[in-house]
Each structure stands twice: as C-alpha cells, then as structure tokens.
Amino acid sequence: MPRAMQRVVISGVGLYTPTESISNHELVESFNAWVEKYNRENADAIAAGELEAKGPSNVEFIEKASGINSRFVMDKAGIIDPDRMAPRLSPRSNDEPSVMCEIAVVAAKQAIEQAGITVDDIDAVLVAASNMERAYPAMAIEVQAALGIKGFAFDMNVACSSATFGIQQAHDMVVAGSARRVLMVNPEICTGHLNFRDRDSHFIFGDVATGVIVEAAEGCQSDNAFEILDTRLQTIFSNNIRNNFGFLNRATEEGIGQVDKLFVQEGRKVFREVCPAVAEQITTQLAEMNIAPDSLKRIWLHQANKNMNELIAKKILGREPSDEESPTILDEYANTSSAGSIIAFKKHNEDFEPGELGVLSSFGAGYSIGSIVLKRV
Ligand SMILES: CC(C)(COP(=O)(O)OP(=O)(O)OC[C@H]1O[C@@H](n2cnc3c(N)ncnc32)[C@H](O)[C@@H]1OP(=O)(O)O)[C@@H](O)C(=O)NCCC(=O)NCCS
What is the pLDDT of residues 248-287, one digit of tens each? Predict the structure, then answer.
C-alpha cells in the first residue's frame, strides 16, 4: 500500500514504571500458601472426589515457560496477601484523578518533553488499552483535561495490540489533517484483570503506562524521531484469550464473580496460532516494501513470552536472533499488554543512526496483530 506524501514520525516516548515489584519467588510463596489453605479447608470434599485439589506453582516452571522473573505492580501488598490476591487501590472521589489517568499523565509528560513540544501543540488524545477503569466519560478526555490539551480525545481497546492500532490511528489523523499532533497513551493496570488464584496464568501480567507522540516529520523538534514507513493491522476472531467482564454482567447475576470475568486463556493454542500469523504478517510487509529482513537493526516485539518472541524473530530473520536484535523487557516487567512493545522500543532505540530500520509489533487477544516499520530520521 503506497504511503501518503505526508511523512509522519514518532517524536517522543514516555514510560511510567510503578515503584513496587513482585519477584517470582514472592508470587509463588503467596500462591502456594493459598493452595495449602484451600486444600486444607476443602479436605473432605477433595477426599470424597467432589473437588479437585489445587496444585502448587513453582518458580522454575514460570521462568522456563515464560521468561518472566518479576513484574511491577500498582499494589504489591494486596496481591501477595493469600487472603486477598488482588490489588487494593484506595477509593477516589470524582474530583480526584482516576488511577489510569494518573499513570498515563506521567508517561505522557515524558513523551511530550522528548518530542520538544508543549501541550498547546497537541490536538488529540487517545487512551489505547486493554481495560478501562469505568464506562464513561472516556479516560482519554480525563487525560486531556489533566494535561490541559485542547481538541478531542477518545478511548480505544484492541487488547494487547491497542498501542500499535493507536499509532496507526494517530498516523492517519496527521495524514488526513484532522490533528497536527496526537498523544497516544497506554495505561495498563493488568493486575486488575489477572486471576492470581489461577496457576496457569497468575505470573503473566504486570502494570505500567506508556505514551507516544505522533506528528508530521516537517516541523518535528525531536532529536530522536522515527519515521513511520508503514503500518499493518490484522484481526482474526478467537476465544483463546477472553474476558467476559462487562456491563451486562448484572443482567446475568449467576455469573458475577466467576473466573471468566477475569483474564482466561488457552496458552498453548495462543502460542501455536499467533506466532506463525505474526511472522507471516511482518515477512509479507517487509517483502512488499522491498526491505530485506537482514537489514533490520531491531524488532521490538510484544512482550508476553520469551519463547514466543524467539520463535517469531527466528521466523522473520531466518536465523537465531541476538538479544540486541530482539530485546526482552518481559523478564523484569512481565506482560504489560499493549505497553510491552513500546517499553522495548523506549529502552532500546537510542543507538540508532539515521536511516536505520526497525519493526515494532504487537499481538494478543482478538486475535489482533499490529506491525509498524520505523526508520530513524
Ligand atoms: C501460558 C504459557 C506460559 C504456559 O506455558 P506452557 O509451556 O504452554 O505450559 P502449559 O500451560 O501447557 O502447562 C504445562 C504443565 O505445567 C503445569 N503448570 C501450569 N502452570 C504452572 C505453574 N505456575 N507452576 C507449575 N506448573 C504449572 C500445567 O498444569 C501443565 O501440567 P500438565 O502437563 O500436567 O497438564 C504459554 O502457553 C504462553 O505463554 N502462551 C502464550 C501466552 C500469550 O502470549 N498470551 C497472550 C496474552 S496477551
């Protein structure tokens, strides 16, 4: 697809990292304390075959299956308390900033500063994330107000691919002239939808916020801008990553509090189906752009699973990727949904020389796959 004449860049990136972090050891200790209590309290039913005993989690499994060592979180105490196993966030009145707004603003300010612009230069705000703190008003309008930005704002949710889909929307707005500059933020409080009592997934997610400024290349003040050469988005319906939480839950109250109102996945199927689809999308995109995969300096992949990323990068490059070619941040951050590939980009882009190329890619629930080819200006 030929690109419009207007050249568009990512001119700034920001990252908010929570101060608290949970190691695998701490998480497993809390999980196993809950398992022991559960099995003890239900000993009779388990012995009678009415209930299944819960199995313990272990650190070695988590590291081998995912590559995750720790995760940053908004509230450690609530999560590792075996009697709670969920973050505890203090209530806020309508006159106080909501939690998602607060962390989005930190990331946004960094992105604005790196772009060398002020809030007056921005016309649109997108909050692109897997979960929204409330139904309405849009989180994006609150972020817009907190920063003092004029223009318009709206929320969008494409699960783990929210950021790449958001970048394409921002790019297209700049090309169309509906906004001069767009702030796109990804406040991801993933511990809010994670079932910490599920052994298969309790280790998967962490919390974070990222932000990106998208604007026309002409007039860009940033000394670290990346031109958006191409964006590709793809969605394929799947139930393999699903969360049935929603506003109609109160109409079927027997489902309230059931595990399907939190994150649920068929991890193996996701692995098997998503990896080839992502590699295929990026390989086709590069071929159509006449870019040899070997000429890429870096691939900033979605950060869900280290084995998944190794497989995808290997399929794209046709050989083992080096850590420098496909950097990992999920070891420290875990899966932060849409923010993952943006964190990898933020932390691993300062060594680029003008003209060097990279691909930013996300994949996740939907399924949704986004890939963006970037060139250092
Ligand atoms: C989730 C994931 C890490 C699990 O790894 P896996 O190698 O597929 O492991 P499995 O779920 O098949 O489990 C293997 C075994 O370990 C057990 N196990 C699962 N969790 C465990 C834990 N925390 N501790 C110990 N054992 C565990 C399972 O019960 C299973 O036992 P079984 O063979 O007796 O049935 C992996 O499938 C994955 O990352 N998939 C993609 C996830 C993803 O990207 N999701 C996108 C979200 S946006």
Answer: 999 999 999 999 999 999 999 999 999 999 999 999 999 9
Which residue lies with its CA nearest to atom 42 of ligand 1? 267
Q: What are the extents of the domains in the chain?
A: 226-376
The Cα–Cα gap between 68 and 333 comes to: 8
Q: Ligand 1: which of 200, 235, 239 to mutate, judged by most atoms within 8 Å of the beta carbon?
A: 200
**Measured CA distances, 150 to 79, 297, 322, 333 (Å):** 38, 37, 44, 33
Residue located via tokens 């199995």: 55
Distance CA 334, CA 204 (A): 6
- For residue 18, is the peptide bond before it cis, meaning its omega torsion is within 30 degrees of 0? no
pLDDT in tens, 137-156: 999 999 999 999 999 999 99
In this prediction, residue 5 has a pLDDT band, given cuts at 50, 70 and 90, of confident
Q: Kindly report the pTM of this predicted structure.
A: 0.96
- Which superfamily, per CATH, for 226-376? Thiolase/Chalcone synthase (3.40.47.10)
Side chain identity at 336, as an amino acid letter?
A: T
List of residues 6+ apart from 94 with CB closer than 8 A: none
